[in-house]
Amino acid sequence: MMGFVPSSFSGLRSRTQGRSVSVRPPAAARRLTVRAVATAPVQTEEKLGVLLLNLGGPERPEDVEGFLYNLFSDPDIIRLPPALSPIQGFLAGEIARARAPKSRAAYESIGGGSPIRRITSEQADALATALQQKGYPDAKVYVGMRYWHPFTEEAVDEIKKDGVSKLVVLPLYPQYSISTSGSSLRVLDKIFKEDIQTWNSKNVDHTVITDWYNRDGYKQAMASLISKSIAELTDEQKSSMTVMFSAHGVPESYIEAGDPYQKQIQECCKGVMELVGSEVSWTLCYQSRVGPVKWLSPYTDEVLSRFRGSHIWFSEMIVSSS
């Protein structure tokens, strides 16, 4: 079974406490941390690049089936026994065709396509501006999507063309899972191995941020949004409300195999609510289950059906992969 961060990473390394170490699976009980960008950078001729990894999404109704095919072709999303792996593409096509009409209608209800490319591009622009203000005038931020344009391969081509010598790889999933960050990093590892002459550590110094759910800034931002919503309620509403975190689910088999996602999302929600205040009631549930296998529970739709009265539903604790 594949490691949660590919243990064979030859091109990618993660920086922790000022030293370079090989990327290791989170399940190996080694939390990787990355220091904040310094306000006074060392003056060198090295060129800094940041690669933001994200899910991607169809931008037009006609993109939906192709997007779904790419999604379900991923062996980290649809896991088949080794003997059936040759038919992964065929099954992905069948599932994509079956699900496309419903998914297309959902995207049409929000304007015809996913906003994820636009939002991620805005994040990239904001990060580039912040880095430039901190003294990195030539820093560039790239966007690489897993299942739709701009694909990770396209972003890597741009990075290579620009001659980046220091690369920070940042998946935009706060919590780590093999089905999100792990899948994107697996693709990146494959790209680097196919051109090891360019991407070896002598030519490009890599830093990989595997997760960031426990960073104070992230938790404080989430807590501030929740507190702002609570402040708008009446006293009567506050007395009966519950903050509901709805996170994207994964099959229970992933957790049983060592995926740290459930533990990280639980720790994240707990940390956020400690900042909001211990007197506030909250719950965590999971959405977007697919197929007959058992997924993380409780399920969002079932929890919603039990709630009555005034509640705050703080949806999408993480970037959804549905």
UniProtKB/TrEMBL annotation:
CDD domains linked: Ferrochelatase_C, Ferrochelatase_N
Metabolic or biological pathway: Porphyrin-containing compound metabolism; protoheme biosynthesis; protoheme from protoporphyrin-IX: step 1/1
Cellular location(s): Mitochondrion inner membrane; Plastid, Chloroplast
The reaction(s) this protein catalyses: heme b + 2 H(+) = protoporphyrin IX + Fe(2+)
Enzyme Commission designation: 4.98.1.1
Pfam families: Ferrochelatase (PF00762)
Record's keyword annotation contains Transferase: no
GO molecular function: ferrochelatase activity
GO cellular component, one term: mitochondrial inner membrane
Primary residence: mitochondrion
Gene3D superfamilies xref list: 3.40.50.1400
Family: Belongs to the ferrochelatase family.
Entry protein name: Ferrochelatase
UniProt organism field: Rhodosorus marinus
Classification of source organism: Eukaryota, Rhodophyta, Stylonematophyceae, Stylonematales, Stylonemataceae
